[in-house]
């Protein structure tokens, strides 16, 4: 696979005779900055020993003195592909079938638990979306691509000079000349992912990034149609509030409401 800066290849680790995934900087993006970016990703992932986060086996250099990140090889499918396939099976756009709700909200909980663990370590992901989740062939659920993850400072925030992430899921505070993130930015991204589970598409759509950013800043947060579950709409709306202070204060609080909904029905 290939992303904005890196590419991932399958390989075999000879000393253990096992398949692994090797991530390196794309040849057309090489330079000191991308190399440091990959090194930082490895260091952050090394702090996150959790069943929902792929473990790092080692960080080294290849025969061209380029940094390589060796990780667990995951065999499975993108959650986005599974989500799209399942959504097409739904005959009614008024009520989501129980099998669909149970399946995808349980994936959602597993990812939320991994994210909650990262937050307790002072690390935010910044690019949560179904396409960054892999569903393994044996029930594994992994939150991948920690390439733009970052550590929060003593004030529990991360300040930057530019946008990073996927525009169609972005929170308002992630956009602008001096974007500032905290754990509630990840809460928003979880809300945007829940929006897609319910509605079948991301919350912010547009032909180009500038159009999407303008909508996020100037327009009210997208709302789920009223014919869907009131509880799921309420959870989604809270997580995607434009003002961070109006959102869930943590992923844990959001997951508690999801668990209640799954076990008890409407909130």
Protein traits:
267 residues; alpha+beta; four-stranded antiparallel beta sheet; three-stranded antiparallel beta sheet; 11 strands; 37% helix
| 3D shape | globular
Share of residues in helices = 25-40%
Oligomer: single chain
**Rg value:** 19 Å
What is the tally of beta strands?
A: 11
From the N-terminal CA to the C-terminal CA, the straight-line distance is 41 Å
Class by SSE composition = alpha+beta
Strand order in the sheet with the most strands: 1-2-4-3
Count of helix runs? 7
Largest sheet: 4 strands, antiparallel
Indicate the low-confidence ranges by residue numbers.
Answer: none
Order of helices and strands: EEHEEEHHEEEEEEHHHH
Q: Report the mean per-residue pLDDT as an integer.
A: 91
Strand content: 15-25%
Give a brief outline of the structure.
The protein contains 7 helices and 11 strands.
Overview of the structural elements:
A hairpin with a 4-residue loop joins strand 1 (6-13) and strand 2 (18-25). The longest helix has 23 residues, at 98-120. The mean pLDDT is 91. The strands form 4 sheets. This protein has a 4-stranded antiparallel sheet, covered by helices on one side. It is globular and about 60 Å long. It has 7 helices and 11 strands. With 267 residues, the chain is of the alpha+beta class. The N and C termini lie far apart (41 Å). The protein is 37% helix and 17% strand.
Topology:
Layout lengths: L5 E8 L4 E8 L6 H15 L9 E6 L5 E6 L3 E3 H10 L9 H23 L2 E2 L8 E4 L4 E3 L6 E2 L6 E2 L20 E2 L1 H17 L9 H10 L11 H10 L11 H14 L3
Antiparallel strand pairs: 1-2, 2-4, 3-4, 5-7, 6-9, 7-8, 10-11
Helix pairs in contact: 3-4, 3-7, 4-6, 6-7
């Amino acid at each position: 696979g290939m992303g904005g800066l890196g590419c991932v290849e399958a390989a075999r680790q000879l000393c253990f005779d096992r398949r692994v995934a090797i991530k390196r900087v794309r040849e057309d993006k090489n330079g000191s900055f991308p190399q440091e970016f990959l090194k930082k990703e490895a260091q952050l992932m090394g702090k996150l020993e959790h069943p929902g986060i792929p473990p790092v086996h080692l960080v080294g250099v290849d025969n061209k003195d380029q940094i390589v990140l060796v990780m667990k090889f995951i065999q499975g499918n993108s959650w986005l592909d599974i989500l799209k396939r399942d959504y097409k099976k739904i005959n009614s756009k008024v009520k989501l079938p129980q099998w669909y709700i149970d399946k995808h909200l349980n994936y959602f909980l597993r990812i939320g638990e991994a994210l909650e663990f990262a937050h307790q370590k002072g690390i935010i992901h910044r690019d949560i979306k179904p396409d960054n989740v892999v569903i393994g062939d044996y029930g594994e659920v992994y939150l991948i691509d920690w390439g733009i993850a970052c550590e929060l400072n003593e004030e529990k925030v991360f300040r930057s000079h530019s946008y990073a992430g996927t525009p169609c899921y972005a929170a308002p505070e992630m956009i602008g000349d001096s974007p500032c993130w905290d754990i509630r930015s990840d809460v928003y991204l979880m809300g945007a992912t829940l929006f897609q589970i319910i509605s079948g598409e991301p919350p912010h759509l547009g032909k180009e990034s500038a159009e999407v950013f303008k909508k996020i800043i100037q327009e009210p947060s997208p709302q789920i149609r009223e014919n869907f579950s009131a509880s799921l709409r309420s959870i989604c709306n809270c997580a995607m509030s434009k003002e961070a202070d109006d959102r869930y204060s943590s992923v844990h609080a959001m997951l508690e409401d999801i668990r209640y909904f799954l076990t008890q029905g409407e909130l």
